[in-house]
Each structure stands twice: as C-alpha cells, then as structure tokens.
From TrEMBL:
This is Methionyl-tRNA formyltransferase. InterPro entries: Fmt, Formyl_trans_C, Formyl_trans_C_sf, Formyl_transf_N, Formyl_transf_N_sf, Formyl_transferase-like_C_sf, Met-tRNA-FMT_C, Met-tRNA-FMT_N. (6S)-5,6,7,8-tetrahydrofolate binds at residues 110-113. Residues 4-181 form the Formyl transferase N-terminal domain. It catalyses: L-methionyl-tRNA(fMet) + (6R)-10-formyltetrahydrofolate = N-formyl-L-methionyl-tRNA(fMet) + (6S)-5,6,7,8-tetrahydrofolate + H(+). PANTHER family: METHIONYL-TRNA FORMYLTRANSFERASE, METHIONYL-TRNA FORMYLTRANSFERASE, MITOCHONDRIAL. The keyword Transferase applies. Keywords: Protein biosynthesis, Transferase. Its EC number is 2.1.2.9. Pfam families: Formyl_trans_C (PF02911), Formyl_trans_N (PF00551).
Length: 311
C-alpha cells in the first residue's frame, strides 16, 4: 500500500481524493487544503469540499495559509509519505517537501502544455476550444511545467459551461490517475517533457474580463457567458447598474452592439457585433438570479426595443 499526502481544495479535487480513497492501493496519511473562507453575502465561514470529504473519512487535515516555512510543513515531512498527489490545491509546493518524497504528481484540468495556471476550464470555453482534458504530470518548482505522465481529452459542446465541464473533467482526472499511477510508481511509464513552444497560460479570471463587450460576435459573447458560469459570472450594465447574465443562447438578428432587438413577455434578444443573443438566466442589481421571463415580468417591465445594455 502506497502512503500518500493529498493536496486539493475545490470539488474537482474532492472527486480525485474520493477515487484514491476507494482504492486499496493507497493510504492517505494527511490531506492539505486551503483555509476555510467566508463566502456569500452573509460571509459565512465554509469548509472546502476536500476538507469536508477528508473529515468524513476521519483523515488528518492541514490548512496552512502558506505551506512554505509553516509549522505544518515540518509535520507533513515527518509522516513518512512515499508520494504526494495534488489537484487544484492553489499553492506552490516547497522544494524541501518535494525532495522528501519519492514522487509528486498533479492532476491538471487541461491538455498541457496548453493552459497552465488556475483557470484552464474557463479559458477552454471562452476561447471556443473543441476539446478539453486532463493531464497527470510531475510536480516541479514552476507552475504546471512538469513532465507529463498521461493525458485524456473530452469534446466540448455548446451545452457545456464551467460547471458541466468541471464535473466531467474531475471524473476524467480521477479515473486517469487511478489507471496510470501504479504503473508510473513502478517505473513502467516515462514522463515526457512539455514542448515549450506550445505553452499557453490561463490565469485566474480578472474582474475586468467578466464584463461583456457587445462589439464581439454573438459566438464570442456566448462563449464568455458559458465560460464564466456558474462562476464568476459575466456581466454588463443596464441603466447604469451591473446586470449579470448567467445563461444565453445564440440567435439571429442585426443591430447596434448591446441593443435590444426583440422583446416579449418571455424573451429578450440583444444584438452583438455580429448576430444576437437570447438571454435566458439573468440577475439584475440587488436581485436574485431569475429566468428572463420572471425578470421581464418584474423589474424589466419598463424595457423597450431599442434600449441598450452597457450604456
């Protein structure tokens, strides 16, 4: 039985940890995750999904704000772990920790060397990629730059968003890790270096990137909206107030960018730089998210054809 330290934070990581826990090949000595954070309007302190799963299995949990030079680091190095598995942990691993184990691998949600960084799933959707995937790679002292052990892809459809792709890639990563890790540990798989000429990055989405540019094509805006749903959510402005668009669909129509082209009790069509979008799930300032029909039946009743978003 291989003794492991697992490091991860969101649901993606929890699915990978869950897979390791179902296998008789591994013993999880400790779980390291980000500190509990205040979330939502009420700022309630919430445990990470990985911590919830770890506690449910009575596993020791470490939550250093910064692992490097922390008291937790020395404790982890004394556990006698043979290896480390990380998945969307959110911190760099100190070189001393990497040197203390026989191997350290990461489950990354992209087809490396494309999309190194913290938001690969978002960028795959925003950029309109035809496929996404996961890569199992060796951990090194550079972000997502380690040699690649294995990768697997999945097609992206127009019905996908960050949430659906996140869930699918988590299962894909879990299954791929369980499939290749025994052979890798046994020395039967030789990790391959990444081609530096093909490296691209996917940094965390900035607030400025959340704002919709209606001069872009309807396909580009559509990809941005689904590439930010269910988080962080794309937004525009309506009558000077922030207006979030959670879901929309491609539509035909011509007009000035951001202009309302058609309006009924149940539908609202907005022009893009090319083509149009039919809004489906929205959130006006100070309101909960709602269907476009509910919005038009409430605070959106004073809208008219010819009105503009983002003006």
């Amino acid at each position: 039985m291989i003794k492991l330290i697992f490091m991860g934070t969101p649901d993606f990581s929890a699915r990978v940890l869950e897979g390791l826990l179902t296998s008789q090949d591994y013993q999880i000595l400790a779980v390291v995750t980000q500190p509990d954070r205040a979330v939502g309007r009420k700022k309630e302190i919430k445990m990470t999904p990985v911590k919830e799963l770890a506690l449910a299995h009575n596993l020791p949990v470490y939550q250093p704000e910064k692992l490097s030079q922390s008291p937790e680091l020395s404790e982890l190095m004394q556990l006698g772990a043979q290896g480390i598995v990380t998945a969307a942990f959110g911190q760099f691993l100190p070189s001393t920790l990497l040197a203390s184990v026989d191997f350290a691998v990461n489950v990354h949600a992209s087809l490396l060397p494309k999309y190194r960084g913290g938001a690969p799933i978002h960028y795959a959707l925003i950029n309109g990629d035809e496929k996404a995937g996961v890569t199992i790679m060796e951990m090194v002292q550079e972000m997502d730059a380690g040699h690649m052990i294995a990768s697997r892809s999945t097609a992206i459809s127009d019905q996908d968003n960050v949430g659906t792709l996140f869930d699918r890639l988590a299962l894909l990563g879990r299954d791929l890790l369980l499939e290749v890790l025994p052979a890798y540990v046994a020395g039967e798989i030789e990790a391959q270096p990444q081609d530096p000429n093909l490296v691209t990055f996917s940094p965390n989405i900035s607030p400025a990137e959340e704002r919709i540019d209606w001069t872009k094509t309807n396909r580009q805006v559509f990809n941005q909206i689904r590439g930010m749903y269910p988080w962080p959510v794309a937004h525009t402005y309506l009558k000077g107030q922030r207006f979030k668009i959670h879901k929309a669909s491609l539509a035909e129509g011509e007009g000035q960018p951001g202009q309302i082209l058609a309006l009924t009790k149940k539908s609202l069509l907005v022009a893009a730089g090319q083509g149009a979008l039919a809004l489906e799930l929205v959130q006006a300032a100070g309101k909960p998210k709602m269907t476009i029909a509910d919005f038009l039946n409430g605070s959106g009743r004073d809208l008219a054809v010819g009105d503009f978003f983002d003006k």
